[in-house]
């Protein structure tokens, strides 16, 4: 036998075996790798799921909010990683991540492919790492959140003690009727000119680190306790809790009515027009809120600005009906009500129409116009209303993710401010700001300035959302600061929208937390702004027909 022929045949055999072995390796380690990894019989499953070095999450100032750290031995896995969160109050925004569980939410879920390195410039590198059994490396995300403001907002929201705080025992408050103990609610703080979300509180919340530690050990007790909690701490309240907005929604009606010419701030309302009785479809509209019997409003006519400052339902029901259903709905839709809000996280759609699609009755339109009726609105949606007024009538796209980088800080994508709609004219927006200032300086919220300071010229609108069923009302406010009366083009730098669920009247249930948060933000210099000289309500309100009588403290 020719030895050369034998060597050639043997070489062919080795080549065929090598190709077959290589093909098998490619099939099992690449083509079918995920199926092999996921099988419960694979003892390396835990290692593989925990092995990727998930991307980090930072705030707007580069403060670390989330990172992957080596998993403890108690997990029963070696060489893996778990998530660590430095600002637990952001759990509703960031969510949590535990390999093997699909219950995580927030940025961790919405940007899972980015954080895991499945997309972006690291995707190809991570495929190679996967073959070589090296750890995949994810991309980093920078949020618009300012963690300093977030901590302040959480602190002030939780500092609420209506049964013991001296503020609630002044002559103008009846604690058992106007403010009720509640730790449930939301707060959204924004830059209205860019749409950036600076802070977002969802209360009560949960501890994402405890969630990671317990689930990683296969312990569902903490998760199950949160599910069983009737306060629902896993709910992202600002984005997904819809409820009656109360009189804050008069701001939507006022915007549309001023812009369409249905009313002016100086339109006069005699006693019957302002106080009723007023009926639509056989039902009486309740709530003149003018304090006629108490002597607060003694002289008529009043104007629309006075009616807004003192939250008169009777006047705003008539304004809504005068606008007409289609015009009123058109302005609501410009604000992205009854449609999906574009955002970096899912937002539940707010609605002001009937669930069965039938047209609003006259009674429903009138009630919607002052924030009752069939209005069903998220706090996030009301923050867009607030932002539009503060930004001279232009609604900006709300923004939470500012940029995405690789782990070497090379920018992969970045976000920039984007206009969604011009809702009303700049002149209309300024007049609405003027009316909101009348609320805070002279109207239903004047006690807040009086107790927590005038320095930052806060404008706002109170709301008391009646939800029936024997439950206490939802206490709402939308606010912006600083407000400048003499320069329509100097717009407020910050907006705060907040609600305390079942807290009672908005000025008392959530107002103090908002005023103290503004004081913190501005006094610490976290947001820079030009502050006008504070106006004294004692010398301003009565000469401008914005109050008629004021009780002494």
Automatic annotation (TrEMBL):
The organism's place on the tree of life at top rank: Bacteria
Domain Penicillin-binding protein transpeptidase: 185-504
Domain Penicillin binding protein A dimerisation: 54-140
GO MF term list: penicillin binding
A cellular component annotation (GO) from this entry: plasma membrane
Pfam families: PBP_dimer_2, Transpeptidase
Stored Gene3D superfamilies: DD-peptidase/beta-lactamase superfamily, Penicillin-binding protein 2a (Domain 2)
Coiled coil: none
GO terms under biological process: cell wall organization
InterPro entries, alphabetized: Beta-lactam/transpept, Beta-lactam/transpept-like, PBPA_dimer, PCN-bd_Tpept
Protein name: Beta-lactamase
